[in-house]
Amino acid sequence: ITSLFMQRKTTLLFAATTTLLILADQTYSQLLNSNFDAAFVQTGILGTLLFIFAFITSGFSRQLRETEKLASEQEYELETITQLNEHIISSMRTGIIVLSHEGSILMSNRAAEDLLGKTKLRQHMHLQNIAPELYQRFAEWQLSDNKPQQTPIHQSHGLPDLQPGFSPIEKNKTKSLTLVFLEDASQLNQRFQQIRLASLGRLTASIAHEIRNPLAAIQHASQLLEESIDHSADQKLAHIITTHTQRLNDVVKNVLQLSRKQQGIPDTICLNNWLIAFRNEFCPTYGMTEQQIKISINPETLTIIFDPEQLHQIFWNLCSNSINHSGIDSHQLLITINGWISADDQQPIIEIMDNGQGIDEKIATQIFEPFYTTSTEGTGLGLYIIKEIVENNHAKIELVNQQGGNSCFRVHFMQADSQSINR
Asked: Which has the closest alpha carbon to 315: 411, 218, 217, 396?
């Protein structure tokens, strides 16, 4: 018994003590009674058996203790790996949902809740009640023998389009589990476009950097030449050189801006106060009155999450595009900025609209493509840069057709939490 839970030395001590006591008992019995027949041979055999049993059982006991220690270490490692996996899954940007065969949610992470509109996904909730289109895609995947569709799922305005992926966990049809991966389709398209244009972007950025210095020298020389000559025809030629070098410089500037694109730092912005400050800065720059930019935000306390500097760049480019491409005199231009909360998803929407000629429907689908322009003075990168900035801040921008031909750009933002500090 002692050999099962004590060290080998202690076990051998007990065996030796027991053997000595048996021998002492035999000796004492013989001394006390002269007729007693002592069995020293049997006593020696018994002692030997005690030592053999102590050795064998102590060996088994040591193996059991080592096995127990190993099991304890493996249990600790398994618990650590489980906690690490849970932390990784909860921190992933890819949405993860585990579904039963019927479509009940068994597990999800924070990214999945954010992609579905900050919806709290609780265990045993049915996916159809939360995201019907995603559940429909899941049902189609089950019926098509696990063949996925590549088309994204369009969500309501203010929420990103989803690119779902499905992977079976168990093959048992009665108790099968499915792992659902949710990706932001706009980010996926962005990655594909970045991969496709990566080589071209590096090449154009290096060329643009090399062109910029001699281009600045040409522009400076043309300006000096334009000031020094008196002949009107020569002045006109010098002015043409200055104008087109400035245009080339704008192209180079936009290309370098694309190559040095940085991720925005989201902040909480009170739209009404921010737009008023923007109007006070924009109007004097272009010689406009404050009445020419009408701002209407409902409610006035509406807040969004966006990078302030990049938001300034977006509104500045859109408003300057209205001045340059509206087709009417700047003194007659009227820019209207309306903001409200969507009734569908409770997310902020901003519309920037002017009273110009609008954009032809034939080219409306191409205006956000790089280097596409219908103007002889444009670079074709302005709206492309705006779209890139908007999507980097997890928002959307689209061109909305208006009756009467007015151009209208609609931006879907993410609303700030009620606990955030308004700025």
From this structure: 411
Within 90-199, strands assigned E span 95-100, 105-108, 162-168, 177-184
Residue 27 CB partners (closer than 8 Å, separation 6+)? 38
The 10s digit of each residue's pLDDT in 182-231 is: 888 777 676 776 676 666 666 666 776 677 778 788 878 887 877 777 77
Find out whether 296 and 338 touch, Cβ atoms under 8 Å. Answer: yes
Q: What CA–CA distance (Å, rounded) separates 30 from 231?
A: 147
Residue 28's alpha-carbon distances to 25, 45, 183, 298, in angstroms, are 5, 19, 89, 109
Contact 58, 8 (CB under 8 A): yes
Distance, in Å, from the CA atom of 97 to the CA atom of 105, rounded to the nearest integer, reads: 7
Is residue 339 helix, strand or coil?
A: strand
Identity of residue 273? N
Contact 403, 340 (CB under 8 A): no
pLDDT tens readout for residues 412-423: 887 765 434 333
Strands 293-297 and 335-341 turn out to be parallel
Confidence of residue 337 (pLDDT cuts 50, 70, 90): very high
Tokens representing residue 223 in the block: 């300006």
Residues 285 and 292: their CA atoms lie apart, in Å, by 13
Angle at 362 between CA 356 and CA 368, to 5 degrees: 75
**Contact in structure between 282 and 305 (CB atoms under 8 Å):** no
CA of 79: how far to CAs of 73, 84, 86, 97, 109, in Å? 10, 9, 11, 22, 19
The residue type of 377 is E
How far is Cα of residue 393 from the mean position of the Cα atoms in its chain? 11
DSSP letter assigned to residue 6 = S
How many angstroms separate the CA atoms of 159 and 394, rounded? Answer: 9
What H or E segment, with its residue span, contains residue 293?
A: strand 293-297
| Beta bridge partners of residue 352, listed in sequence order | 337, 409
The C-alpha atoms of residue 306 and residue 94 are separated, in whole angstroms, by: 21
Structural contact between residues 380 and 370, judged by C-beta atoms closer than 8 angstroms: yes
